[in-house]
Amino acid sequence: MAKPTAAVFSFTGCEGCSLAILECEKELLDVVKLVDFVEWREAMSERTEAMIDLGFIDGAISTHHDEKKIRQVRERVRMLISIGACATNAGVNALKHRYGLREVKEIVYGEAGAEFDTISARPVHAVVPVEFEIPGCPIQGEEFLRIVLDIVQGKQPRLPNYPVCVECKRKENVCVFEKGMICMGPVARAGCGADCPSYGAWCEACRGFVDNPNDEAHEEVLTKYGVTSEELLQRYDIFCAYELEERKSRQQGQR
Amino acid sequence: MADRKLSIFVEEICRVEGHGNIVLNASNGKIEELWLEITESPRFFEAMMLGRRWDEATHISCRICGICSIAHTTTSVRAIEDAFGIEPSEQTLALRKIAYYGEMIQSHVLHFYYLAAPDFLGVPSVFPLVQSHPEEVKRALRLKRLGNDLCKAIVGRHIHPCAYLPKCMPKLPDPKALEDMHRRCVAAREDLAAAVDLFATVKLPDFQREGEALASWHPDEYGMYECQAIKSTQGDLTERRDYRQKIHEYVVPHSHAKHAETEQGAYMVGALARYRCNKEQLHPAALAVADRLQLDSYLFNPYAITLAQVVETVHSVEEAIRYLEWTLGRELEWEDWGVKPRAGRGVGVDEAPRGLLIHDYTFDDDGKLTAVNCIIPTNQNLNNIERDFHALVPQIIDRPDAEIQLLLEMLVRAYDPCISCATHLLRVEIKR
Fold first, then answer.
1. Looking at the whole model, is its pTM more than 0.90?
2. ipTM given for this complex
3. Which domains occur in chain A, in start order?
């Protein structure tokens, strides 16, 4: 099989996840062995007219322009892979929904903001079909490489569906709750190696939640410190505001 | 050249962070339209942060930018400390500075090697260099990794640091990791010397425009971290909390990023601005490099920002070595966290790699944000870039379109804009 071509397209976000690909310094040379980058505005001038095998998307869809552009990109790539919290669940961008869109424009830009193009922030999968999602704010370089390798070899990549607590315990960290702080570890999706608790902070669920937080949460920690998974879900919405909106509308739909 | 219509539109200028266009329309040598259009989606951070708890403020605001998230974190934390009356210990400041200089190194190396060097080497991106200049690429990767690993050793990672909190470090670093970083910083001097050799051969486009420059000022060191006042090349110093007396932000129709001016009009921030304001406080090794690159003869040439970044990278490695040695020379002490919020205003000012960065927060009694203002380096430079455009284009208007376009793109890239930060792109239409 010929070496697959790859491109990176950025939408509403900080471009930290595209940078995280460039950050795989030691391995960047390995990535270049796996795929040929043919288009990547942040890193290169080249652009292509040909069909692209792998299209990596960072950023959320938060303007009419984004919406139009992601539909065009979808036509140009065989496999669309969302990378990072913004692309996979709208990330911090959805925090603006707590205010009206008119209000946020006025808060930041004053009267001049009225004409600015902004719509509710959505993940890529809410607008076009997506083949795979790599979560995190930012993505983990090693996980990215593993998933790209799987895809190139024709395997179905997988994400962990267990909570961050599992990885944190494995590292023998003192439990964050023990230090009197609140931590999303019991309900957050693992795969980061519990980096934040390992460096003395707490988990904010930047990789989103496990598939079914009610069943798959780390019960032992929840019981010991007397918190419920539902309470935790509400605690830090920095990265999960959109996911919570979706859960809420699903629950209302079930009633 | 009668009746030449020049119309250049560079859509989504490449090798910059974020989305911007250059628009240039000229007819018979007369400029009709010329600007830098910022099309990055507006993100409304200042609104998203309202009502949030103090312990969330930094973790939201650092997401403004993936390249300079440590700078945003640093400035955000300093705004919180200023508001709550917290004075971090000498040890905490030393550890933070190691991470801070780490980010300065990685960001500058990213720009001068990955994003700007392809222009000077006549290739469209860093990828062809993997084949043609393998040693340069490996050197760039090593230097960039050094910057990242300095951040990693102290705060967990460089993009959106895990553990950079107000008051003190939530975990003390592993002394072995610090020793290893010290060894690698010392070894990096050799890689940097080779980088300097490469950039000493670069011929900059011939262009000059005099104007004001602003940078952080500190009495005892080259103004980067812990800004005491904002210094202008006009000679004035402005107190941190009074930045609004010096800097005025406003909205322009073609840009999702605010512009900024002083009483003098457009001004520059970033590596060259810092050099112009504070060069005598640079480390002697960095000053020697500035001499070698003849930076003093390019003080008003924005294309030389890239050279100033090379100089500052040398300075940053030397500073990282200094703070690593300070840290390794003592037993690190555990400090209790325990931050007590209180109502009030706090202002953090520091230098991000791209220039002066300000976070201004007001909290209520519960430590929730009631007002937020962030002034970002790229916003401040946008106005200056457009003034440069207007000075440059009449000098080059008789050249071929492709050359005009490249010179304009290189000019934008020289400022190393971080458009996600500023929330903007480049479109050039030239009608002559």
1. yes
2. 0.89
3. 5-152 (3.40.50.700), 164-253 (no CATH)
